[in-house]
Amino acid sequence: MLEMLHWLGHDTFRIDGPPVVYLDPYKLGTGLPPADLILITHDHFDHLSEEDLEKVRTPVTVVAGPPEVAAKLGAVEVLRAGESRILAEVPVTAVPAYNTNKQFHPKGSGKVGFVFTVAGVKFYHAGDTDLIPEMDGLRPDVALLPVSGTYVMTASEAAEAARRIAPRIVVPMHYGTIVGSDADAHELVRCLQGSGIEVVVKPKE
User: Fold this and answer.
1) CATH classification at residue 140
2) Which residues sit opposite 63 in a β-bridge?
3) Which of 48, 55, 118, 134 has a Cα at 20 to 30 A from 94?
4) Model confidence, pTM
5) Mean pLDDT, to the nearest integer, of 77-102?
6) CA distances from residue 3 to 6, 76, 178, 184, 200 in whole angstroms, order as listed
7) Residue 89: strand pairing partners
8) What is the domain range of residue 98?
9) Residue 54 counted as domain residue
């Protein structure tokens, strides 16, 4: 299931279905496969990087995100929280993502996460968020959750989120680039021991 999931650092992932899906491409290397679909959670520089988009975007790549992403990029598929669409043959639903006790990603600002299915695997990319009630019962196969604190959930909060989301597997993200470290990822492993939820710390590629 996770063989097709590649962590490229921070909140950036590539999923090799096919189709090839990138999430929040940032600080990409070279020689990567072109994207069929790019999903962008919000407009902060470490999630919306036009320089990195151009490394994997082709004339037929579908780019999707909330209105604030469209405001910066122009021609993208706009998805607001609660909206669903099939993009590049991928069923995608945008879901809320926001802070509850921080000012960086206010509730109502339109930032999102995504629930989508590639090659029969249901993924949830939480975006930059705290533990919020809209996560309850999403039940993906794989949940990609931030763990670094500061701008997003801490590892212990991500563990509680995982219990509410009820995925089969959790992959930590949002550490090791701007804030957070490997210790945050491994703290999530510790917090979910005995929960029945597998935590996989993916190596950065």
Assistant:
1) 3.60.15.10
2) 38
3) 55
4) 0.95
5) 96
6) 8, 29, 26, 23, 12
7) none
8) 2-199
9) yes
